[in-house]
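Below is our example:

___
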Amino acid sequence: MHMAKKTQSANGMYQLVKELFPYCRSITGNGVRQTLKTIQKSIPLELIEIPTGTKVLDWEIPEEWNISDGYILDDKANKIVDFKELNLHVLNYSTPVNKKVSLQELKDHTFTLPAHPDLIPYRTSYYQKKWGFCMSQNQLDSLSEGEYQVYIDSEHKKGSLSYGELYIKGNSSKEVLISTHICHPSLANDNLSGISVATFLAQYLLGRTLNYSYRFLFIPGTIGSIAWLSRNEDKLEHIEHGLTITLLGDQSNFTYKRSRRGNSEIDKIAEYYLEQNYPKHTILDFIPYGYDERQYCSPGFNLPVGCFTRNTFGEFKEYHTSGDNLEFISEEKLQESLQALQDILEIAEHSRSYINTNPKGEPQLGRRGLYEKIGGTNDSKLTQLASLWVLNLSDGSNTLMDIAIRSGIEFEVIVEASEALKQCGLLKEVQ
């Protein structure tokens, strides 16, 4: 087994982030469709629409929201806030407004971050209809008394929720689920980094010979995963591994949040990979808060889905602010994130379960030519020991990852030993 080869995709991923950055995304609307259609240029994504009012589990698809303009004018007709310059300036899902207000009324409808007075916050009002703006605390403090013209040209209407899905068929009907959220507007790390890495990860898998089948979801956060789950319960039994991916472009070390199960195979693989390759990583236990893993891991589904990130949900000052811009992420870190996910999936592809076909006593390896098969390796004694571990633990209940963890022998050596044992007829794969 070999780890995934490095790919020359760093610049392409960053360019995709740059292209998508200006789009005003939300949980519904044309910005989401525009994003999905841009992704379609790279991978054959299927676009799915669910009409407003559709019941999805305990939720309902909301009205679609679109916006074309928004600004604030002072009493001299100077534009002090402009949606077209930065879409974070308008409360996401804001109702339309066109009137003159006092400074106090403007303040009542303006969101700031007093703790970070130079940053503009990202705020939403998905399920409570109101109008509003966002600006830095410093800018708000600089405004003088007087009348202000507030204008937001937005619309709530019966429409649909849009999401994208790509199914890549492998040799098995067992699936790996990769999910990333597409509902945030001009925020580079959260989550254009996840969108870009997921796109290039899918591109990497297309055309390859795969053991597992892969399902990629590009969905609005929370309501999107709930909608997908409500429509696809018949597919859930096939999901063997799953990852939500986000926050993959900043300078932080990798973080892995375990699935609700806590010891699923993907948990073991991700933790093993990070321990072997990135000593300064963080492992978090599951909590029912964060990204869409909390929907996939809800008790009625309890899917083996973890969350792979760099920084963590809400734990950095740029989170959900204008500070999460194109300078906050880098080509280098996007590439490193893609490489890590490729490697993790490569391990998943090889971490299978076997049954020892000759389990009574230790089989005679010499007369089967096993020593010749492994004699040319860098450390044939280690591979012989790995062979004994594989034979001893291959009772159908352990994967090769389980064996690597228990034996303390590198996963690649365990895989090498298992391949030799299969050739000798001493292992049979569990289907």
Summary: The first helix runs from residue 10 to 20. The chain is about 30% helix and 25% strand. The two ends are 20 Å apart (CA to CA). The first strand starts at residue 46 and ends at 51.
